[in-house]
Design a protein that fits this description.
Layout lengths: L5 H13 L6 E12 L2 E9 L10 E2 L2 E3 L15 H7 L8 H19 L1 E6 L10 H5 L2 E3 L5 E7 L8 E9 L3 E4 L9 E8 H6 L4 H16 L10 E6 L2 E6 L1
Parallel strand pairs: 1-8, 7-11
Antiparallel strand pairs: 1-2, 1-4, 2-3, 2-10, 5-6, 5-9, 7-8, 11-12
Length: 244
């Protein structure tokens, strides 16, 4: 488990501030949604207090992208319009990289929250971090994923990520394991109404993305493919919002 004392974290931050800015790593997070009447709910969990990165904060399941995830077989492919959005913007994001990003969001949601997104069926792979899908007979599926936001961590931080926020619906979950995911990365995993989620102890960018998502759901409650995607990053010391 990634655990550091406060003194160690402070030391790392001082070194980071003095060093050359860290290149952001690709990451993906999944915003899992449910609907109860006219109210939208979102799945969130609290990071353990001992984590070096955002300790104690409520977040969506997610983590760093593993390029090898692009080779995992799936029941369905990314929607072409969603793939086009994922490959747009700065950086070189190939279709294979976009696929890896999407699959890493699905994998992390299993590892951290015990939710397997896909379709029931025979699934086989030698990759150890996908064995939960093998054991429970779930073939990962990408068709239902929607790209809703992108954000790059500002320079001079302990860790930097180029994070793609993807969304899916609870109906896309084929298996829901009791007790959460195998890594125990998140505790207190709960379904929260969007308004309450925004009031929780969450990172600023998470609150911004939730506000963006709530606005989109007001005019696009089904999250249609190919919609414009907000992209947040620091440009010349200014936090800017672009559209992909």
């Amino acid at each position: 488990m990634d655990v550091m004392t406060k003194a160690e974290v402070d030391k790392v931050e001082r070194i980071a501030l003095e060093a050359k800015p860290i290149r952001p790593r690709d990451a993906a997070t999944l915003i899992l949604l449910d609907r109860k009447g006219d109210e939208f709910l979102v799945l969130m969990g609290r990071r353990h207090a001992g984590h070096a990165f955002m300790p104690g904060k409520f977040v969506f399941p997610g983590g760093r992208t593993d390029p090898a995830d692009s080779r995992i077989s799936t029941a369905t492919a990314l929607d072409p319009e969603e793939e086009a959005r994922l490959t747009a913007g700065i950086g070189r994001t190939s279709p294979a990289r976009a696929r890896a990003i999407a699959l890493s969001a699905i994998r992390e949601t299993y590892e951290e929250a015990g939710l397997l997104i896909g379709q029931k069926g025979v699934f086989a792979t030698a990759r150890r971090d996908w064995q939960g899908f093998v054991e429970h007979g779930v073939i990962p599926s990408l068709q239902a994923l929607r790209f809703v936001a992108r954000a790059i961590t500002p320079p001079n931080r302990v860790r930097r990520f180029d994070t793609r926020f993807l969304a899916a619906w609870r109906d896309d979950v084929a298996v829901e394991l009791p007790g959460g995911g195998p890594t125990n990365e998140l505790e207190d995993v709960v379904w929260l109404p969007l308004a309450k989620a925004r009031q929780a102890d969450i990172p600023d960018i998470t609150r911004t993305v939730l506000e963006e998502l709530e606005t989109r759901l007001a005019w696009d409650p089904l999250l249609s493919p190919g919609s414009p995607v907000p992209f947040y990053r620091l440009v010349r010391n200014r936090f800017v919002r672009e559209i992909l």
